[in-house]
Amino acid sequence: MKANSVLKPFLATAIVSAAIFLTTASAQDTPKLSDAEVASVAVVANQIDIDYAAIAKEKSTNEDILKFADMMTDNHKAVIAQAVALVTKLGVTPKDNAVSQKLLADAKKTEKTLRSKKGNAFNKAYIDNEVTYHKAVIGAVEGLLIPEAENAELKALLQNVVPSLKAHLQHAEAVQKKF
């Protein structure tokens, strides 16, 4: 896979740095994520991909990219809706935290890079980003969010999302081969 070298630093830090931040800091320095914080990270990660898809819909005319962006929008909005329904049911308000803040800061850098591209350079940068982003999200959900979630329903929601994320990754990799 030929991930765009300009995007790699941003992508590598997006979710991965948040996971590393939590796993390498001492327990005294970094408290365990609460379910409200896990919910916030999950919603933010999904919203980031919706935002990337919106950029693709603005900048691309490629049918494969546009179909993928539509799928990202629909699927990630559905996950957010499920998360919102669950936290509403549980009476939990997603709580901003260092991980969600880091995700948003890194996403702004990636968005700036994506917006600077045009034509096939944009298409390649977008789909390379999607491959890397989904790999990072899968790793963070499996290695950070699921283990940190205490509520069984929240944990189940996260576990149920993993197959969709893996399907998104496979689809992104298939599109990536065209660029």
In short:
With 179 residues, the protein is mainly α.
Mean pLDDT: 84
Percentage beta strand? under 5%
Model regions low in confidence, pLDDT < 50 over at least 5 residues: 1-30
| Strand and helix order | HHHHHHH
| Number of helices, where a helix is a run of at least 4 consecutive DSSP H or I residues | 7
Radius of gyration computed on alpha carbons: 16 Å
What does this structure look like?
By secondary structure, the protein is mostly helical. The protein is 79% helix and 0% strand. The chain is built from 7 helices and no strands. Helix 3 packs antiparallel against helix 4 and helix 3 packs parallel to helix 5. The chain starts with 7 loop residues before the first helix and ends with a helix. The N terminus is likely disordered.
Which helices and strands, and how do they pair?
Layout lengths: L7 H7 L1 H9 L10 H25 L3 H28 L7 H18 L3 H30 L3 H25 L3
Keywords:
single chain, 0% strand, 179 residues, mainly alpha, disordered N terminus
